[in-house]
Amino acid sequence: MTIIDGKDLSQKIKSEIAIEVEKIKSAGGKTPHLAAVLVGENPASKVYVRNKVRSCEQVGFKSSLVQKDIDITEEELLETVHFLNNDPDIDGFIVQLPLPKHINEELVTLAIDPKKDVDGFHPVNFGRMALGLPCYLPATPFGIVTMLDRYNIETSGKHAVVIGRSNIVGTPMSILLSRKAKIGNCTVTITHSRTKDLPSVVRQADIIIAAIGIPNFVKADMVKEGAVVIDVGINRVDDDTAKRGYRLVGDVDYQGVSEKCSFITPVPGGVGPMTVTSLMLNTLKASRKEIYGE
Ligand code: GUN
Predict the structure, then answer these.
(1) pTM over cut 0.90
(2) Residue 162 β-bridge partners
């Protein structure tokens, strides 16, 4: 069994990005610049955004954290988005989700200029992904594809079972794994809360993508011997013995499943760091105008 070390791989890729940034700077080019909009005080969102800002520092990007009160109106947030769309120094930006209930996330996502949508959430980027056109891939699926690639995991002809159908992980992952590409050519089954006898479907998988948001959901008896297991879950569970009062666990029962599978991503240190690094890769692409030109 091989542990897919997302932390180590993401460091490696960040070093590669840092070298590229140095080249851009020494050629007199503009420093890539990512902005992150954070609304309110959601603790998980604050951690994610802090990690994104820290990663920008590590690779030599400029970053701007735009913090807004939880009671910001939808109109004000849309104004912020328009401001960032029109700021020529900002190559890409993200609006951290979830947003407070009184704000329509769909409307905010639609307002982001697809050229600066480094999260890949805008329907233009999502549609381009589905059609196999150049686009910003959503960061988590992009990170997973990169892990499969860098660990030389064969996907062609394999049965991939995706657990969860979210817009940001399950659905795009199912599209990416079925496309005609080096990491792709899978036969894909997407499963969700209405799937009948989900364990028997997951048992058929050569590749499992667990993105359902339920701690330890995938148990050893749901996993075929030798399967590749990608755990997207980052669940906080209460733990009085932990300094913070909680610990992070994935959607996969790591201890049991790791004895049966061929590859597994740990939580933490698997998909999470790769997600942030993929955002850095998208920002580099944005600064180079790789997807949409000038
Ligand atoms: N919330 C959870 N994951 C993400 C992400 O990748 N991007 C944004 N903007 N919000 C998120």
Answers:
(1) yes
(2) 190, 209
Q: Which two tokens stand for residue 198?
A: 């989900």
Residue nearest atom 3 of ligand 1, based on CA coordinates: 97
Report how far ligand 1's centroid is from the alpha carbon of 273 (Å): 13
Q: Is 291 helix (H, G, I), strand (E, B) or coil?
A: coil
Catalytic residue among 91, 115, 116, 119: 119
Active-site annotation holds for 58: no
> Among positive and negative, which fits the CA dihedral 123, 124, 127, 129?
negative
Residue 242 burial (CB count, 10 A):
11
Active site residue 119: yes
Domains of the chain and CATH, by start: 29-113 (3.40.50.10860), 139-271 (3.40.50.720)
Return the structure tokens found at 279.
């955002």
pLDDT of residue 294 exceeding 90, the answer is no
Beta strands per DSSP E along 49-181? 62-68, 92-95, 159-163
Residue-wise pLDDT tens digits, 184-216: 999 999 999 999 999 999 999 999 999 999 999
Judge whether 172 and 160 are in contact, CB under 8 Å. no
Asked if the bond preceding 268 is cis, omega within 30° of 0, the reply is yes
Cα-based torsion angle of the residue sequence 22, 26, 30, 32 in order, rounded to the nearest 10 degrees: 0
Let me know: does 236 contact 246? Beta carbons within 8 Å: yes
Please give the pLDDT value at position 3. Answer: 98
Residue 230 and residue 252 in contact, taking contact as beta carbons nearer than 8 Å:
no
96 catalytic residue (yes or no): yes
| Nearest residue to 95 via CA among 36, 45, 140, 166 | 36
Selected catalytic residue, list 14, 52, 115, 285? 52
